[in-house]
Every structure is written in structure tokens, then in C-alpha cells.
Amino acid sequence: MNNFLFNAHSGLRYIILLFGVLTLAYSIYGIISGKAYDSKIRILASSFVGSIHLQLLLGFALILTGRFQPALIGHIFMMLLAAAVGQIPVSIMRRRPVEQKSYLPHGVGALLALVFIILGIRAIG
To answer: Residue 111 has what pLDDT?
Structure first.
């Protein structure tokens, strides 16, 4: 079971990076083209954040199975920041009226989340 969790946690990173890059690219495209806010960015951003949350659950499961080491504290902290920064634009844009929705918060959130993810990966060593 422990190996399965570790392999799932390791493999999910590629899906997260794919959704993160797609969210960032589509938000840049939306900003540059002046395109009206559509459901595609909401779906991409929600998929990005949802996959980060799944990754967090797998990481916490790994901790509970005894794979915690003190060297992972920086990794855990950065990943929690990435999840929070990625979730904020999704939550804010969901509540805004249609005429106030924008691509920019999704782009900034995805970029910052990807930076925190990269820093979190580098924290492992």
C-alpha cells in the first residue's frame, strides 16, 4: 500500500504540471486576445486545483503511513501554499458576476502555484 501511495503521489505531478501550464497558457491567450470569459478557463483552473488537492491527500496519506522525514517540512509548506494560491482565484471568480470575471486572476494564481510547486520539489533536494 505504501508503494502504491508513493507511486501515485509521484505520478500525479505530471498531471498537475500539465493542468497548470494549460491554465496559465489559456489565461494568457484570453488576456491577449481580449476574449470574453468562458467556462474553459474555469474548468482548467478547477482541474488544476483539484489535482493539487488530490496530491495533498496522497501526501498526507504518505505521512500517516510513516514516510515522514523532517527534511520534508519545506516541501509540505510549499505545497500547501501552492494549493491555497491556486484555489483563491477559482473561489473568487466563481462568486463574481459574469461581467466582472477575468482571466488575469487565474493566470496569476496558476503562475504562483507553479512557482511554489517548483520550490516545493526543490526543497526535497
So the answer is: 97
Please tell me the total count of domains within the chain: 1
Question: Which residues, including other chains, have CB under 8 Å from residue 21's CB and lie 6 or more apart?
Answer: 114
All three cell numbers of 109, joined, read: 494564481
d(CA 125, CA 123): 5
Q: What is the CATH number of the domain that holds 15?
A: 1.20.120
Q: How far is CA 65 from CA 22, 57, 68, 96, in A?
A: 33, 12, 8, 41
What domain range includes position 80? 2-124
Residue 37 DSSP label: P
> Taking a C-beta distance cutoff of 8 angstroms, is the pair 31, 107 a contact?
yes
Q: pLDDT digit string (tens) for 15-40?
A: 999 999 999 999 999 999 999 999 99
pTM summary value:
0.91
